[in-house]
């Protein structure tokens, strides 16, 4: 009896094929990788390059208003005298720069002021005019409130150090006695004398002292958002209060946003 012909194209016997990888596992892995990279980039960016801040007081009005939200360039003043400083786009701090810095006392909150005196400068304020090294400083950004005139806009440093106002911190009182020479305040090396543009409503170097170079975080670049607010809304609050503030901001976003200040450069 003849053998049956072998079937053409019949598959050869083989081991069972391995199951195809699940797409869900690959998608999850890619998502987690992207998320991790995003977090790393965000941390690097906010640590070394740019960071968001908000203005809680009127001390810099009208340049900066309560409710302005800023992007601060943390990279611009990064030079610390290292060998690679000349390879990076750093620049020195200049008189007139608006800076963000850590307050030298208490819990180190962030302040925003304008640089008036550089290391080595001699500062004198009289009759609402600021003199640097004996020359009048031209300040188109400064405003005054005659109804609440600050005495330290008429005589600073005080000619009689025994009459220093009680608002001055004790540490600053000692520094004034040491750093005042011939009626002028001498700014020490690596320190800066700063003031708010709203001269009669500003707690600044006149009242608590110099800003150390290491305390300076950066320079505001732009107002990325601005909302009508009052200083009380930016005071420390409970988590519940913070949630209420977020809900209020979202609810009144269209009507309370100061659209004309959006994306305005800070000078």
The geometry reads as globular
Characterize the main sheet: 8 strands, antiparallel
The proportion of strand residues reads 15-25%
Topology as H/E string?
HEEEEEEEEHEEEHEEHHE
Number of helices: 5
Please, what is the CATH homologous superfamily?
A: Umud Fragment, subunit A
Question: Taking all residues together, what is the mean pLDDT?
Answer: 81
CATH architecture: Ribbon
Poorly predicted parts: 1-14, 40-48
Can you give a write-up of this model?
With 267 residues, this protein is of the alpha+beta class. It has a single domain (48-265), classed as Umud Fragment, subunit A, CATH 2.10.109.10. It is built from five helices and 14 strands. The strands form two sheets. Strands 1, 2, 3, 4, 11, 12, 13 and 14 form an eight-stranded antiparallel beta sheet that branches. Strands 5, 6, 7, 8, 9 and 10 form a six-stranded antiparallel beta sheet that branches. The longest helix is centred in the N-terminal third of the chain and has 26 residues, at 23-48. The protein starts with 22 loop residues before the first helix and ends with a strand.
Keywords:
Umud Fragment, subunit A; eight-stranded antiparallel beta sheet; 21% helix; globular
């Amino acid at each position: 009896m003849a053998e049956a012909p072998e079937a053409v194209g019949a598959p050869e016997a083989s081991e069972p094929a391995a199951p195809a990888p699940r797409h869900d596992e690959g998608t999850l892995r890619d998502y987690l990788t992207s998320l991790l990279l995003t977090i790393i980039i965000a941390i690097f960016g906010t640590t070394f390059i740019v960071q968001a801040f908000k203005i809680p007081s009127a001390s810099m009005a009208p340049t900066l208003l309560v409710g302005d939200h800023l992007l601060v360039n943390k990279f611009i003043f990064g030079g610390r005298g290292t060998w690679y400083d000349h390879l990076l786009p750093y620049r020195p701090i200049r008189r007139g720069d608006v800076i963000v810095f850590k307050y030298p006392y208490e819990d180190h909150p962030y302040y925003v002021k304008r640089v008036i005196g550089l290391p080595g400068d001699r500062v004198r304020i009289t009759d609402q005019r600021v003199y640097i090294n004996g020359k009048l400083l031209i300040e188109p950004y400064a405003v005054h409130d005659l109804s609440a005139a600050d005495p330290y806009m008429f005589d600073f440093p005080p000619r009689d150090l025994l009459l220093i106002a009680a608002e001055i911190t004790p540490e600053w009182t000692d520094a004034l006695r040491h750093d005042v020479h011939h009626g002028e305040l001498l700014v020490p090396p690596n320190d800066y004398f700063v003031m708010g543009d709203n001269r009669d409503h500003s707690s600044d170097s006149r009242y608590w002292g110099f800003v150390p170079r290491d305390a300076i975080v950066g320079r505001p670049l732009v107002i990325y958002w601005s909302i009508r607010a009052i200083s009380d809304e930016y005071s420390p609050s409970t988590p519940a209060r913070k949630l209420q503030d977020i809900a209020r901001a979202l609810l009144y976003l269209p009507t309370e946003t100061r659209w004309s200040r959006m994306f305005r450069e800070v000078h």
